[in-house]
């Protein structure tokens, strides 16, 4: 199947999975049953970014793979409800949909997680090429490091003029980006991922700026590094670095905040914002998500982001 359209949209390639999230009511005890709340909802980095873009009134179109199970059915029903285009997502017979299980402490921060993402090995260059028009006509392409290295290389080699936004995902997976750094418009990473990619030890916001500058020197047009409670640092296309402090937020869950940050960066790019304003917009998206019990905040909207920015003037 080939997906194409003339109206503006963003194409996203990568993880689409079911998130099972457990939140303990009290400090957790190992090797014991801990009272808490367990929720189940569609997730995955690329899919989460896509949902957030939909909530920001951006046409988002997802390319991924799903199993032929109940989780896949739930994910497609959810996508229909929020206006997420999943026509390019292949259903693989006899396969199980990717699943991500996370355990959170009483403070909302994640303690440990297990991911079952084996199905994404079936997201191949040939499958991507079968949707060539989807990528050629997109205003921007978002890809996460859940995909295979040859998929990253295919995207970057065949569509070099596209604005490619990459999510590092994890220290274990981000090394896939090393051969394609010069092809990236924007790289979003956390402290550990940026350290692994740049080779610069990050212990302070200043050293994070040095890491961002090092990645820019290796060809990345724009670099954004999230530092949790220490805010966000960046390096723009001119090699100018900056930092924005984190704003106070009553955190309910850390899950999905990074995906909301990336969605905000993509939205701001589509609006023609410079990187410093883009980071402010993106951080407001992340802060709204941190204050939600859901990985994708139902409260996220253009109006909600603007209202939060007005509370904390640029």
Can you walk me through this structure?
The chain is of the alpha/beta class and 314 residues long. The protein has a single domain (11-311), classed as UDP-N-acetylmuramoyl-L-alanine:D-glutamate ligase (3-Layer(aba) Sandwich). It is 35% helix and 22% strand. Strands 4-1-9-10-11-12-13-14 form an eight-stranded mixed sheet, with helices on both faces. A four-stranded mixed sheet has the order 3-2-7-8. A two-stranded parallel ribbon has the order 5-6. Helix 1 (45-55) crosses helix 9, helix 7 packs across helix 8 and helix 9 packs antiparallel against helix 10 (275-290). The relative contact order is 0.14.
What key phrases describe this protein's structure?
alpha/beta; eight-stranded mixed beta sheet; 22% strand; four-stranded mixed beta sheet; 314 residues; disordered N terminus; UDP-N-acetylmuramoyl-L-alanine:D-glutamate ligase
Shape: globular
* Largest pleated sheet: 8 strands, mixed
Q: How many angstroms separate the termini?
A: 45 Å
- CATH fold description: UDP-N-acetylmuramoyl-L-alanine:D-glutamate ligase
What is the spatial order of strands in the main beta sheet? 4-1-9-10-11-12-13-14
User: Number of helical runs?
Assistant: 11
Annotation, overall tally of beta strands? 14
Q: What's the CATH first level?
A: Alpha Beta
Number of individual domains? 1
Please estimate the helix content: 25-40%
Elements, N to C (H/E): EEEHEEHEEEHHEHEHEHHEEEHHH
What portion of residues belong to β-strands?
15-25%
Whole-angstrom Rg: 18 Å
Derived from helix and strand composition plus strand pairing, the structural class reads alpha/beta
CATH superfamily: Ribokinase
Low-pLDDT stretches are 1-5
On the 0 to 100 scale, the average pLDDT is 93
Q: Tell me which CATH architecture applies here.
A: 3-Layer(aba) Sandwich
